[in-house]
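Repro case for the chain-ordering regression, as requested:
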Amino acid sequence: MKSFNYHAPKDVKDASKLASSNSAFLAGGMTTIPSMKLGLASYKDVIDIKNIKKLSGIKVSGKTVTIGATTKHVEVATSKDVKKAIPALAKLAGNIGDAQVRNRGTIGGSISNNDPSACYPSACMALNAVIHTNKRKIDAEKFFTGMFETALKGGELVEAVEFQIPEKADYQKHPNPASRYAIIGVFVAKHKKDVNVAVTGAKSCVYIDKDLSKKLSSNFSVSAIEGAEVKSSGMNSDMHASAEYRANLVSLYAKKAVEAC
Amino acid sequence: MASLVGSRVERKEDTRFLQGKGRYTADINIANQTYAVFVRSPHARAKIKSVDTSKALKSSGVVGVLTGKEIAEDKIGGLIAGWAIRSEDGSEMKVPANPPLAKDVANFVGEPIAVVFAETLDEAKEGAEKVKVDYKVLKAVVDPADAMKSDAIHDGVDKNLCYDWLLGDRKAVDEAFAKADKIIKVDLINNRLVPNAMEPRACVVDYNTASEEITLYTTSQNPHLSRLVMSAFGNVAPENKLRVVAPDVGGGFGSKINVYNEEIVCSWASKKIERPIKWVAERTESFLTDTHGRDHVTHAELAVTNDGKFLGFKNETIANLGAYARVFGTVTPTYLFGPCATGVYVIPAAYSNVKAVYTNTAPVDAYRGAGRPEATYTIERLVEKAAMELGMDKTEIRMKNFPTQFPFKQTLVHTVDSGDYVAGLEKAKQMADYAGFEARRKKSEANGKLRGIGVSSYFEACGIAPSAAVMSLGCGVGLWESAEVRFNPTGQISVFTGAHSHGQSHDTTFAQIAADEMGVPIENIDIVHGDTDKGTFGMGTYGSRSLTVGGIAIVNACKKIIAKGKRVAAKMLEVNEDEIEFKDGEFVALKSNKKKTIGEVAFACYLPGQRDEMKSPIPEGDEPGLIESAFYDPPNFSFPAGSHICEVEIDPDTGNVKVEKYTAVDDFGRIVNPMIVEGQVHGGIAQGIGQALHENTQYDETGQLMTASYMDYTMPRADNFPEFNLGFTCTHATSNPLGVKGCGEAGAIASPPTVMNAVIDALGGQEISMPATAEKVWKACKSMKKSNAKAA
Ligand SMILES: Cc1cc2nc3c(=O)[nH]c(=O)nc-3n(C[C@H](O)[C@H](O)[C@H](O)COP(=O)(O)OP(=O)(O)OC[C@H]3O[C@@H](n4cnc5c(N)ncnc54)[C@H](O)[C@@H]3O)c2cc1C
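-- result from build under test --
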């Protein structure tokens, strides 16, 4: 690993000031540190944001659950409040990677990194999340812009993610047997007026499957999507899974998720 | 005194390992050490046009940079193939030079080209980035099945063929096949595996400028052998000026048998730069450069009669050696494979033909089981398929072809001294509730799942090996083992062994044996291994040889201690030697019942006299001291055997395979420590299930290793396994005084075919290759559905 300056600011303002085109925020470090070790990334300044108190914690209001950016996966997975308000979100967090990853990885790091096979982005999309940054509020559908790409600008820091509490929801994932990231993951959320089916792992970026969402919005049952075709075109094909296999899994896990709701 | 052999003595080594007190190579630091980083080829096959080290030499903290040119100038030898194999036509195998630093061509991704030494690791890394290598990239040969049709990658190795080897009698096989009612055929791939020892390879070299002695601390399964190879072939230093220490080693599985490039280079360089050197592999380097395992492409056939008798067997295999032939690389697919390919059956005619080819991939060498898993997979797939095609029960067809008498002289090579294959399979059937399978299958079916059951009966030839036999077959060394038992004056005992423990628990099991032999508490015994300066020579640990060869050397050395002790005690007790009996640590004069403990005798051996009286306890012709050593060369291999049964359940929607039940019944002869043996079996089965279902080494067509990290290479984890159901049968080995057989590799040998037979059973006989990943199985389920629909 190349040497770098390590900073541990106490508030968001200082963190933001330290940021430059040659810096990275350090949250759980589960992505940043391996990529630095492997020489895939190097920075002049590494800005550790874990000491910024206000970035961590879980708040439930009437309609939303707000999770601070540096809240760890294990905290979300075991939170009584999350389990009560959006059990599917706790379940998602509890199945991320392995225990070591869950004990360090954070929601802010996960969504800022926007790995195409990460789990949280699908929850953000399905639960109409609003991403709070130190500069603005961004709707999830505008936040995830492409493979490892987000709407975040230089020095912009995610402070929290605000999820809409659905009537019902479930997350189903087919883990990559090696890394345990999602080969595909399907987050189904039934809101008062409509249903969102968000899919991760299948394409270069998380997306809402409009067809499945529409069918379930008019009839929230497995039978509504029984024959629905999930097309493999545009899906990832790699040594872990072909596009055809992924398409099969999306269709299958969407049904499993509806069933589990 | 109760015997320790046979009891579940807790592992002596656990205290240090569980408390983080293990001392591994990377834990060792020498004052003033430099750090080595290797510049490695990013290409699978390339000409090295030039290597420019000028910028690296100027880089901050860099102490030295060395390349293939300097190592060639200093006439440092390359890596070696330890076993010479002859082709069917009588010609010798073709082995290319394998210099420690490639000078003219690079032949696999990760092959070392140059090395940078610096004051800190970071500086060494930066320096390494500044070494400029100009490559001319050439088209890589990657697929072993195509290798013989591709460009020759080594000068003088036509068709990339190392040898074309035959064991057996083609004519006899043809005749047997002509008489058969049915010929069963399989095409198999034995998938390449990355060994993945928990501890990556490492070395620390300390050159003493005064004594001119090199001390090499290294992650080796066989430090004495490493020293021999580095001296005799590497020309690194004379043996008496080279000390090799393999301290705690965190797993080997065969990947730490070889003397590797880095050890040779750092040892040579330490003398050159007159500084200690430390090198520790990063995980990616382990993936790229540790010797890999397996990688066979096989076509095999079994000739059978309609009532399920086996008449003949043939096996045509292409074995991938990778870029170079390494220590056990050439023997693994020949003498460790061919002789075992007829399995536990009486098959009157058989042959195995193996073509070993070079490709631009990491060298392939022994990996837990080495050749025997490949052999067992071949025959056990055939047998299972035969049962299916003949409509016979899969256990019945096996029973029908088991030998009924031991010693069992096999058609090809081995004479198996002991065993009872029927008893093993009967016990496995009972433990696995084989009879109840159909009901379980129906239950799975009702849940929309496919359930399958697979059996495999195996034997293996381990405890390697009789020196004269293996040397006659081309082995470059004898495979005896040695031991020294050193009684200290105050009664503690150091037992030196040439075997090496890197997970095998020798500290405990060897101490159990020595404690029983000498009737002393186990606490008094220390097992010392892993240091060429401590104890006698030895060949190391692999091929499940430590107990069956090294353990017997210890027994024999203990026997010599007792023999001398008897002579001394007789003199001390003033009786004839034949009037002394040794029992439970005491030498007893039978008539008078006067006795001396072994501790008193040892003390007297070192302090042979007493005040006011000129009297020595040492008999005439004997010497003071109580140290004995033994070299043991086994008269035969040892032949553990058993039957495993596996049940899997497949979800046809996802293709996920769940191992529901796994039963293993093994015959390891007399068992020294059941707890440790169970651990060995667990580990072996886990690796075998890994091979069958998960581990999927993939090179792309340019020779880049796609699965070079745990993000992409699936290591099996605890949640991939059911609770293993273990049982034992016991027939004592007749070839050694303890009656023991090897147990280290059996699990990895028996389990891949057991699991695959179960998967293929669930798929209605549809063949699929290892690893049976979810997507492959899903595709098979789909085509099964289609053909079922057609049939209906
Ligand atoms: C073996 C393994 C398995 C995994 N499995 C899964 C899985 O199954 N599902 C899943 O969803 N994820 C998985 N992950 C990802 C993991 O859960 C982490 O979420 C992820 O690695 C990043 O989170 P982090 O907190 O560690 O971020 P870091 O590594 O610290 O940062 C990642 C990136 O985000 C930036 N960043 C961090 N925090 C902020 C912020 N508040 N504002 C702006 N930018 C920020 C950093 O600068 C950096 O560029 C896995 C990771 C590993 C190593």
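Ordering looks correct now. Residues 546-573 of chain B form the longest helix (28 residues).
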